[in-house]
Amino acid sequence: MASEQQLSAIKGAKVLMVGAGGIGCELLKTLALSGFQDIHIIDMDTIEVSNLNRQFLFRKLHVGQSKAKVARDAILRFTPRISITPYHANVKDPDFNLDFFKQFNVVLNGLDNLDARRHVNRLCLAADIPLIESGTTGFLGQVTVHVKGKTECYECQPKPAPKSYPVCTITSTPSKFVHCIVWAKDLLFAKLFGDKNQENDLNVRSSDSASSSEHVEDVFEIKNGEDIEQYGRRIYDHVFGYNIEVALSNEETWRNRNKPRPIYSRDVLPAELIQENGSVDKNHENGNAVKNQENGNVDKFFVADDPSAVFAMASLGLKNPQDIWSLVENSRIFLEALKLFFTKREKELGQLTFDKDDQLAVEFVTAAANIRADSFGIPLHSLFEAKGIAGNIVHAVATTNAIIAGLIVIEAIKVLQNDTSNYRMTYCLEHPSRKMLLMPVEPFEPNKSCYACSETPLLLEVNTHRSMLRDFVEKIIKAKLGMNFPLIMHGSALLYEVGDDLEEDMAANYAANLDKVLSELPSPVTGGTILTVEDLQQELSCKINIIHREEFDEEKEPDRMNLSGWTQAPPKEKENTNISSDNGASTSTTSQTVTLETYGDDDIEILSTGTESVSAGKKRKVSDISDATTSDLSNIADKSSGKKKHEELDDDDDVVVMLGDGNSDISKKKRLQ
Ligand SMILES: Nc1ncnc2c1ncn2[C@@H]1O[C@H](COP(=O)(O)OP(=O)(O)OP(=O)(O)O)[C@@H](O)[C@H]1O
Ligand SMILES: [Zn+2]
Question: Residue positions in the annotated binding site?
Fold first, then answer.
């Protein structure tokens, strides 16, 4: 039961919720039932069938409608007298500016991506409004409290980099199923159905240049007079047969590895199966509704007129997404899915990107990854498993969302009462640790060198004679610092700015600057230069000290730049530290690495663990609970389940259970100022 004081804090509060998904639905319900009277909700999405199992405010009839609006209507049905204001919009829209944020007493995030979280963090800092952050991954979850000047901000600790793989592992020497998935999704799918002009390392080149560049260029185009069946088989033979033969010709590669086996469609799908394939297709054309009724685990709510509702699996009579298909079945799915993309979804060709909610895309990627896995002697996987890997999915647990929503409200009430000494970051574990599933931890102090909440400059090592302003804008300002509308100044000289209201000659000047190397800009940027970078929308401003460096390691520093500063590395490791990658939000494919996309859906990052950092003079590990992002929680869970060494306080210390490696300062409680 809430005390009088709490009730009055609750009643007087104006609250902004960002995200009306898994956590957001629970949160809105808990806020309403706790007595909150004035709630604003921003969510940019519409409801999808796949949301219905846990986003309980939504029903089948709401599919396609705004989450924020439907959530409001659902809640008003049982608490009609409260005020809920929905915004079907992106929180990054300029309308949600500083003045907008200033009207609230507290902001509560139920988001699913780093980009939006950073954006809200910055506006909360600028508006001086407390932020309560949250995230869940399956059974794991956390709630953190961010109050300017009192606790860490969301960006005080760099987030772990998305997992990336060397390109050669993906293109030539896969050893795990995930490598085959990345190949199928980021290379093959992108090449066939995405932007044809993007750089793509799909083709293996032989050391003796047997594959002429002409062959490489033409192979993915449909040839004159070629029908879609022939085209599909040619692609199949090229990527699973010919390319493997080319790869095998690099004998060095296979000296200490198992050789892959080239697979040609004629060997897997002889004539009688081609026939069968054809008849299945007819079956598919005839039915108005794709015969999906029996597919217990596949989304049921679709109509055949909708091109996105065309499934290869259903049309081939494969029903259970948990079955592991044979090589023959995978090959048939591959050819069928390819055909369906070209015949039923031709309007989308050239602009498709892989989406885990696109069933046909998942079928294609599963089949392609499995055929490749077969070739390399890697165990095959079911569509269900492949979808999880390709979409980076850890299946959501509704109860975790409900627990986390409850904890958000508890912290929100403390924040509204300014009950600083009782703020807690709380971690929800998969397995009890000393009979506790919820671990409260005192929040950390702000990181004095955080670029988002302090004024400490960042350091950028760059070859100022080679890197262009464009590289700096794209790879540092946007990708690493997450700015949307950057403005770059050198002293009083404006080097770059974005905006709709720029005068033509200024816009032309900035466009010309983008293609200049840093040292040849009108106001040259060289070693020792201090740049000021601002994002007026985010109200963020930071200084970057430029350090000129000639050489970069192409493998480790593909951007040829190294950003550091807001988290100091321990001195002995300083030379090796590449802070920039810790905060990377890149999902792009570079010539050096293929990154498994994570930040669109950061609940599912594949982590590199053990990165050490120092915050406010205290050494700790990224894998410690102190700076747990959603993704870090898997480490905690491992520890708490006894898989790793863990350390706990005495039984009678009933407030805090600390996990750590025994050396970590995480086990020292920190008092708030
Ligand atoms: N920039 C943004 N502006 C507004 N809302 C956002 C923004 N980014 C994410 N969201 C919202 O945050 C919510 C996150 O909810 P959740 O993690 O449950 O994801 P989901 O998209 O509903 O489900 P899933 O990803 O599992 O299919 C989503 O409803 C999404 O629309
Ligand atoms: Zn900070």
Answer: 19-24, 43, 51-54, 67, 112-117, 153, 156, 450, 453
Specify the pLDDT at position 593: 37
Distance, C-alpha 313 to centroid of its chain:
28
**Enclosing domain of residue 572:** 458-607
The model's pLDDT over 508-549, given as tens digits with 9 standing for 90+, comes to: 999 999 999 999 999 999 998 999 999 988 889 999 999 999
Higher per-residue confidence, 618 vs 102? 102
**Overall domain count for the chain:** 3
Assess whether pLDDT exceeds 90 at residue 69.
Answer: yes
Query: Which positions are annotated as active-site residues?
Result: 168
| Ramachandran sector of residue 461 (left: φ over 0; alpha: ψ -120 to 50; beta: rest) | beta
Question: Residue 375 in contact with residue 260, Cβ under 8 Å?
Answer: yes
435 and 571 belong to one structural domain: no
User: Model's pTM, two decimal places?
Assistant: 0.68
Q: What is the spatial distance between Cα 45 and Cα 551, in angstroms, rounded to a whole number?
A: 44
Tell me: the pLDDT tens digits for 327-360? 999 999 999 999 999 999 989 998 898 998 899 9
Strand partners, 137: 140
Query: For position 272, what pLDDT does the model report?
Result: 54
Q: Supply the CATH number for residue 505's domain.
A: 3.10.290.20
Query: How many Cα atoms occupy the beta-carbon half-sphere of 214 within 13 Å?
Result: 0
DSSP state string for 207-234: TT--S-HHHHHHTTSPPTT--HHHHHHH
Per-residue pLDDT at 474: 92
The residue assigned the tokens 């009055």 is 8
Question: Over 483-517, what HEC string results?
Answer: CCCEEEEECCEEEEECCCCCCHHHHHHHHHHHCCE
Closest ligand 1 atom number to CA of residue 67 = 29
Q: Whose CA is nearest to atom 25 of ligand 1?
A: 601
Cα distances (Å, whole numbers) of residue 278 to 283, 285, 290, 624:
9, 11, 16, 56
51 lines ligand 1 (CB under 6 A): yes
Can you tell me the ipTM of this complex? Answer: 0.98
Of the residues 582, 607, 632, the one at which a domain ends: 607
Using the 3D structure, point to which of 607, 622, 649 is the last residue of a domain.
Answer: 607
Are 214 and 339 part of one and the same domain? yes
